[in-house]
Every structure is written in C-alpha cells, then in structure tokens.
C-alpha cells in the first residue's frame, strides 16, 4: 500500500511539474529535461508513468475532469456545478490552467489536442442525456449539439477572461453564460430551481474535495 501511495504521489508531482512547464513555455518549447528538473525525479520514474511528452500532456488534459462533485437531484444542476467549479479551478489551480491552455494551444506542434475536447464534450453530453431522460430538457434539445455549444462557449468565455483580467472574473462570466444558455434548453420549472452563482462554486468545490479525504480517513 505504501508503495502504491508513493507511486500516486510521484505521478502527481510529475504532472504538476509538466503543467507548470507547459504553462510557462508552451508545449512545443517544453522539454522532458525541464520537467524532470522541476519535478525532482529520475528519468526512469517519469517514463514509468508516462511514455512520452504527448502522454504527459494527455495526463494533464485528464486533470480537467478529475474532480468528482457531489450528486444532485437535478442533472442540470450537476451540469451547472461542473462548469462553475471548472471556472474556479481554472483561476486557482495551475494544473487545470495548463490543461485548458494545452487544449487551446494552436502552436502545440505534434500534439493531438482533440482528446481534451472529446473527453469534455463526452462528459457534458452524458449529463445532458441523463437530464433529457429525467424530463429536464425541452423536447427539441439535442444533447450532443448542446454539449458542443456549451464547451465552445465556455472556451471562448475563459479566453476572454484570461486576456482581460487573468481570469479574475471567470466565475461571474460563466454564471452569465449559463443564464443566457439554459432558458433555451431547460424546462421552465427545472430552470427556476437551479442555483447558479459564484458562491455555489466555492461551496460545491469544497464538498468535492472533502469527500475523498473523508473516505480515506
């Protein structure tokens, strides 16, 4: 068990180092040597977990969706929660910032950036499909098309927030995005019950982090 925990910590250390280097230097300019130096691990330890720089980038991509949030009685509330918490994590967590930065880095030569968007769209589509099954969406709503639109909208909103104020207002902008999009897809009675606020992001994020620690204890 101790060996497994050590391996998990080492993998996390490598990912955090890679995220920092990717964020500072960009994917193309970043080198394995720089990541090794930042992580303070051996080349063997790095290649035990990741076979290439591209695999490292994929690991960083996956961190964007790694946090499990508390389930809600409404699937649309879960969708809102995931967007709000992602906005909060983008502002506060370098690993998540690097994940989104890599996905949007058009200069990342040799890196297939489609897995990042595919994972995000697939997860959003699943939540919307469940919401439709539960009768929370209007009849005309296509979950896949809506997921793609939401991911595209979030990507643009976070980029604008980054350029204008280093994402300091990102949670507010995502709240505005949801307020504009949800009336076009949600059943009115469901829409009226949704809580969409930056304050909720902090509360749900804290709950999501607390649950794994409680299970471990």
From TrEMBL:
Listed SUPFAM superfamilies: Homeodomain-like, Tetracyclin repressor-like, C-terminal domain
Single annotated GO MF: transcription cis-regulatory region binding
Protein name, per record: TetR/AcrR family transcriptional regulator
Pfam families: TetR_N (PF00440)
InterPro entries listed in its UniProt record: ArpA-like (IPR047923), DNA-bd_HTH_TetR-type_CS (IPR023772), Homeodomain-like_sf (IPR009057), HTH-type_TetR-like_transc_reg (IPR050109), HTH_TetR (IPR001647), Tet_transcr_reg_TetR-rel_C_sf (IPR036271)
Sequence ranges assigned to domain HTH tetR-type in this UniProt record: 8-68
Transport keyword on record: no
Record key words, sorted: DNA-binding, Transcription, Transcription regulation
Residue spans binding DNA: 31-50
Native source organism of the sequence: Streptomyces sp. SID14436
């Amino acid at each position: 068990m101790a060996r497994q925990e050590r391996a998990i910590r080492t993998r996390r250390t490598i990912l955090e180092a890679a995220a920092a280097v990717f964020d500072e230097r960009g994917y193309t300019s970043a080198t394995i040597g720089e990541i090794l130096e930042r992580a303070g691990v051996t080349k063997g330890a790095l290649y035990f977990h990741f076979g290439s720089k591209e695999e490292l980038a994929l690991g960083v991509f996956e961190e964007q969706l790694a946090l499990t949030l508390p389930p809600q009685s409404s699937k649309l509330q879960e969708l809102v929660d995931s967007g709000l918490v992602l906005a909060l994590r983008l502002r506060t967590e370098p690993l998540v910032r690097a994940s989104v930065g890599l996905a949007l880095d058009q200069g990342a030569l040799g890196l297939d950036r489609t897995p990042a968007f595919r994972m995000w769209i697939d997860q959003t589509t699943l939540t919307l499909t469940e919401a439709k099954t539960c009768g929370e969406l209007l009849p005309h709503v296509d979950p896949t098309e809506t997921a793609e639109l939401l991911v595209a909208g979030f990507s643009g909103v976070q980029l604008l927030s980054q350029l204008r104020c280093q994402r300091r207002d990102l949670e507010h902008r995502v709240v505005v995005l949801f307020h504009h999009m949800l009336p076009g897809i949600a059943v009115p009675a469901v829409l009226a019950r949704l809580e969409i606020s930056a304050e909720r992001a902090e509360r749900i994020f804290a709950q999501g982090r607390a649950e794994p620690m409680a299970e471990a204890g």
